[in-house]
């Protein structure tokens, strides 16, 4: 039985990846290592937690002794590494936390994997999940390709870029078999409501202001999270060692246009008069170092591995809204306590 370690499996994207692999590959054993930070939530995986091919392990990837022992005990054949501090605004407040988890945590995992298999890497793979933010920002035109130079602008993207470089360096120096994928903005069920779409859904439900940074003319390329999980499945199985693949939605939106679409859909779902939610839009102080535009050229993964997004944005957004409206308890649980302190600090 193939032993697959997935890190960060209780987070937003990780929980969709864990579910897909647990259900689709009964002959794999999936070990989910997660520290359960504010962003990690066991509730995200209640539907698969009692499957016989699934084991949850609570632990911190920074803890070298613990991680080394884990690798010795379980002898993981493969790793899909998602655990990270993932929110740009938090990285501006506390950059060091991002270096610890994203850089040192990745190093700890790389070392544990390398030391376990020494030079005998046959049928082994370390799959590092990264972001398009490592490429920095685009102007009004152009797309990020796999050969775009790294040019990160936030502490978050600098820490992700650094971890990508270490993964590559381990490939070059020690022959460690790796792949890296760099994905654009994800949205969908289970996303913590500090990121744009779930934050605004939650605020609309509660009739709170929608804090659009700057003039709202920033562009992101949005991908439904289940489509990202499908891409990870394809890249994990069919990707070529030492390669990088960009993953994106072919779906660029200016923030302000996206927010207006979201407002219109929310009014319909909540049975409120047209324009009610749009009235909540409030332009606030911009994010420092705010990247103007991200857009991915995902033709390599499409042409070489046959992956492409399955949902159009309007459909994905509707599914996302339905999920949040039908999972009020999940939303209430994650927005109580510490979330309120974060919110006050960030937006007041
Ligand atoms: P998330 O913040 O929702 O989840 C991160 C998970 O990692 C949580 O479960 C958390 O408990 C866990 N974690 C954090 N620090 C840990 C530590 N020290 N030890 C063990 N576990 C720890 O993040 P996400 O949005 O699901 O992103 C997952 C990965 O995908 C990240 O590597 C991120 O950089 C990358 N990514 C995210 C997006 C996006 O739009 N969200 C896009 C591209 C790439
Ligand atoms: O591009 C991939 C990245 O996408 C991932 O690597 C990150 O983990 C993920 O968080 C996301 O980063 P962004 O910074 O693009 O996502 P966020 O949802 O924080 O912001 C999206 C856009 O919306 C961005 O231009 C900032 C803006 N924004 C965000 C928030 C939270 C606002 O205008 N107001 C807000 O309150």
Explain how this protein is built.
With 348 residues, the chain is an alpha/beta fold. The chain has a domain at 2-190 and 222-253 and 291-312: NAD(P)-binding Rossmann-like Domain (Rossmann fold, 3-Layer(aba) Sandwich), CATH 3.40.50. Helices cover 43% and strands 17% of the residues. It has helices spanning 12-24, 64-74, 88-93, 95-117, 155-174, 196-205, 225-238, 255-270, 299-305, 313-326, 328-334, 338-347; strands spanning 2-7, 28-34, 54-58, 78-81, 125-131, 178-183, 185-187, 210-213, 219-224, 244-247, 252-254, 281-284. The protein starts with a strand and ends with a helix. The mean pLDDT is 97.
Secondary structure: elements and pairs:
Layout: E1 2-7, H1 12-24, E2 28-34, E3 54-58, H2 64-74, E4 78-81, H3 88-93, H4 95-117, E5 125-131, H5 155-174, E6 178-183, E7 185-187, H6 196-205, E8 210-213, E9 219-224, H7 225-238, E10 244-247, E11 252-254, H8 255-270, E12 281-284, H9 299-305, H10 313-326, H11 328-334, H12 338-347
Parallel strand pairs: 1-2, 1-4, 2-3, 4-5, 5-6, 6-10, 7-9, 8-12
Antiparallel strand pairs: 9-11
Helix pairs in contact: 1-7, 2-4, 4-5, 6-8, 8-10
Residues 7-8, 10-14, 34-37, 39-40, 60-62, 82-86, 101, 105, 129, 131, 160, 183, 185-186, 192 line the site of nicotinamide-adenine-dinucleotide.
Short overview:
With 348 residues, the chain is of the alpha/beta class. It has twelve helices and twelve strands.
Give keywords:
348 residues; Rossmann fold; binds nicotinamide-adenine-dinucleotide; binds 2'deoxy-thymidine-5'-diphospho-alpha-D-glucose
Low-confidence spans: none
Q: Mean pLDDT score, rounded?
A: 97
**Span of the ends, CA to CA:** 52 Å
Order of helices and strands: EHEEHEHHEHEEHEEHEEHEHHHH
Percent helix range: 40-55%
Number of helices: 12
Strand order of the largest sheet: 3-2-1-4-5-6-10
Largest sheet: 7 strands, parallel
Bound molecules: nicotinamide-adenine-dinucleotide, 2'deoxy-thymidine-5'-diphospho-alpha-D-glucose
Q: Please give the radius of gyration in angstroms.
A: 20 Å
In total, the number of strands is: 12
Q: Could you say what the CATH architecture of the domain at 2-190 and 222-253 and 291-312 is?
A: 3-Layer(aba) Sandwich
Portion of residues in beta strands equals 15-25%
Mind telling me the CATH superfamily name of the domain at 2-190 and 222-253 and 291-312? NAD(P)-binding Rossmann-like Domain
